[in-house]
Amino acid sequence: MEATMADSSPADPLAAATSALMHSIQGYVRAAIAAEVANAPPQSTSALQTRLDSVIQENSELKEKLKQIENERDTIKAAFSSYIGVALPESKLSRHLRPKTPKFSQFRNFPVEIRMKIWKLALPTGRVFDLSMGDGHLSRVLRATAPNPNGGPNPAVAIRQASGLAEMSVTAHKTPKLRLACKEANRAFLEAGGFEFGLFGGAYKGLWFNYTEDILFVREEPRTWTNLDMSRIVRVAFPHTRFMSKADITSKMDLILDHFTSCKEIILMQTMEWDIRSCLTSPRLPAKLFPLGTEDPIGAHDYPKELSNEIGNVAAWGDVKRVVEQISREHVTEVKRLTPGRVPKFTGMEMVRARPSYFD
């Protein structure tokens, strides 16, 4: 399982060089003016004002030059980031170009409820956490799928589980820095979400998850639920192909009722993921979600005839949603004997992962 790593933003060499150059030039100009003024005979006020205006103009030109250099640096960095498919750390602006952030001094006068709501709205939302068997360390180093020659359980899997690790891998997202602003921001941070997917299914070594907004995409189902606790996850996504028959729908509802006890929304994710160089995109590439329309085609189905007489061979999202809702409702209320409130709502989304430049 991937763990959240601390930000490590290395100093930008070009920004440091340009900042040092600016300091040197300004220091030289100040020293030259001071020496000339000290050694020269008294001059009129107009002459001094003219010299001051000249220095201010030179300083303005230097700022423009520095801005041009930093723009060129950002252009090169964006091109390189688009090529490798990974966003590079943002460079710190020179103090001469850093915009002044306006302050809102009346924020503390708002009621606590409004301030907490504002803090929560500032937290990241709609992030997709990809749950899959794609654990490179487990597959490459431990060879966990290989059986034990003696017929017993694989020792690598046993050691992994005893260490508190799950078989599954979850893509990591950075923990919001908003929590460091003040105690009130940290309280909003703790109320809105919690650390999930940690060791032994707990918070330790976990990833911060916004319960009402973030999405857990179950790309592959775990072979074992050891060290996995999904009881607090509200929004769960599955590949849309797992809901194209009655047997698949009831199987997914059993999984939701057994492990995702807080689930309020199931997202059928249509993932047409591709990249110029590969049909399998990196889970680290940013994901964009687009709601499916009623007439958007989903795929072939194997629904009961009494529910699909008018659908045809290829089902659209409107038909899929109607059939899935009906089968799920009947399974929960009639087979499981549970209340209709345990039936989550169903949403259709298309997810595209690609380089940031693809969405510009």
Largest sheet: 7 strands, mixed
Rg, please? 29 Å
Terminal CA distance reads 31 Å
User: What is the helical fraction, as a range of percent?
Assistant: 25-40%
Kindly name the structural category: alpha/beta
Number of domains: 2
Layout: helices, strands, pairs:
Layout: H1 13-39, H2 45-84, H3 112-121, E1 128-132, H4 136-142, H5 155-162, E2 169-170, H6 183-192, E3 193-196, E4 207-210, E5 215-218, E6 235-239, H7 246-259, E7 265-271, E8 287-291, E9 297-300, H8 305-308, E10 314-316, H9 317-335, E11 345-353
Parallel strand pairs: 1-5, 5-6, 6-7, 7-11
Antiparallel strand pairs: 1-2, 3-4, 8-11, 9-10
Helix pairs in contact: 1-2, 3-6, 7-9
Notable features of this structure?
360 residues; alpha/beta; seven-stranded mixed beta sheet; 39% helix; elongated; disordered N terminus; 2EXR domain-containing protein; coiled coil; 2EXR
Characterise this structure.
With 360 residues, this protein is α/β, with parallel strands linked by helices. It has two domains: 72 residues; 253 residues, no CATH class. Helices cover 39% and strands 14% of the residues. The chain is built from nine helices and eleven strands. The strands form three sheets. A seven-stranded mixed beta sheet has the order 2-1-5-6-7-11-8, with helices on one face. A two-stranded antiparallel ribbon has the order 3-4. α1 runs antiparallel to α2 and α3 crosses α6. The protein starts with 12 loop residues before the first helix and ends in a 7-residue tail after the last strand.
In short, what is this structure?
Helices cover 39% and strands 14% of the residues.
